[in-house]
Amino acid sequence: xxxxxxxxxxxxxxxxxxxxxxxxxxxxxxxxxxxTGRNKDPAFPIHVRPRDVGALVITHAHLDHSGAAPLFExxxxxxxxxxxxxxxxxxxxxxxxxxVKVTGDASPFTDYEVAKFAExxxxxxxxxxxxxxxxxxxxxxxxHVPGSAMIYVEGSRRILYTGDMNRSDTELLRGYGDGGPLxxxxxxxxxxxxxxTQHPSRDEEERALVEYAKEVVERKGTLLIPAFAVxxxxxxxxxxxxxxxxxxVYMDGMALKVNELMTSIPDYVRDPEALEDALNSLEYVNxxxxxxxxxxxxxxxxxxxxxxxxxxxxxxxxxxSEGDRNGVAIVAYQAPETPGRKLLEKxxxxxxxxxxxxxxxxxVRRFDFSSHSGRDELLKFFTEDIRGDPxxxxxxxxxxxxxxxxxxxxxxxxxVEVPTAGQEFEIGGAVP
Length: 432
Description:
By secondary structure, the protein is of the alpha/beta class. The protein has twelve helices and 22 strands.
C-alpha cells in the first residue's frame, strides 16, 4: 500500500492525500488555499489525473478540503466517484459557488463545474461501507462542522485520516468521541493545527464574548463579529442565546443560506431545537438599506467572511472601525496576510481592493471559538484515543509547530513523520 501526501504538508490549506493499492486509488480531500495579501491567486494540491483516481472522499465542506474538487469536472467523463456526507455535499456547493464569485478569472473552474460536482457527488452516512477495487472505506464523525468526517480505509493495511477534528462538544456539535472508540489503524494521518496552542474553556470564552457584547451595545456602540458562514456563525448565535444576551442580534451574508440548510439536517447537530431557537431569535439582514441602518445603531452583527476578506463584513468593518464606541470581536482563525490578521496584530484595517489602510478607532478583541482540537486534546488523541502502534503522519499545520510536536510525540515512543509535499510512504511492502 502506498500513501502520497499531495497537500497540507507543513502548511494549513489545500489538503489532499492519495492512497493506492494494486491499482485501486482513493483520494482523501482535494482542497485549495485561498489567495490572501498581495497574492490573490488560489493554490491547489499536487495534480492528480482524474482517470487515475477511483474515488474522491471529502471530509468536510471547508474550502481547504473541498475547494479543488470541481477540477475533476473540467474533463467530462473522467471524473472519479465523489463521496461525502449529505451536509458536506450541500455546504460544499454553497462555498464553491462563492469561491468562483470571489476569485473570478483566477478560478480554474466555473459555476457549471461546481453544479456538476454537486450533482454527481454521492451522499453517504457515517458507518456506511464503500468498496473501491481492493480498498474499502467508511466515515465516522469528526466533530468539526456539521457532516464532518474522519475516513477509515481498509486494504492490506488500515488507515485513519482525521481531516479536521474536534474532541470536545460545542454548542453545535458533539466531539468525535461521540461515535464510540476509534477503529484500530496501522497508519494515522492527522491534522496538527493547534499542536502548540491550548484552547481555553469554551464556556468561559462564550461568557466573555457575551459580556463584551453587552459592554459595546450599552455604551451605544455596534459590535461586528466576523464569522465563518459554516459553523462559526451559528455557534456564536447559539452562545449569545444560551447566555441570554438581551439586545438585538443581526445576521448577514452566506450564513443565512447555511442556517436554512442546517435546520434541515437535525441528525448532524447536537441540539436541533436549541439551534432553531437561536436562529429564530436573530434578525436577518435582507437589503443594503437595512445594512446601512443597523451599522449606525447599537446591536450585534454576525457576518461572513470570518477573516474580513470578502462578503458583507467588508462593508461593516469599514463603517464600524471609524467609531470609538464600536467593537470587533474576532472569533475565527486569521490566516497570515489577511485583513483580519492585520487588524489583530497592527490595529489597522486593510480593505481588499481599496488599496489603502484605515486607522481603527473601534475596540478589537479576540475570542477562541476554534472547532479544532487544541494541544491537550491532540495529545489525548495520540496517546489515549488511538489504538495499536500506528505510524503517525502529521499534516495541516504550520511547519515549525509541527516539527516541534513531532519531537514531543517521538519522546513518548510514537512513530511520527512530518512529510513534505509529494512525499510517499510504502506501508507493508512495495506497490507495483
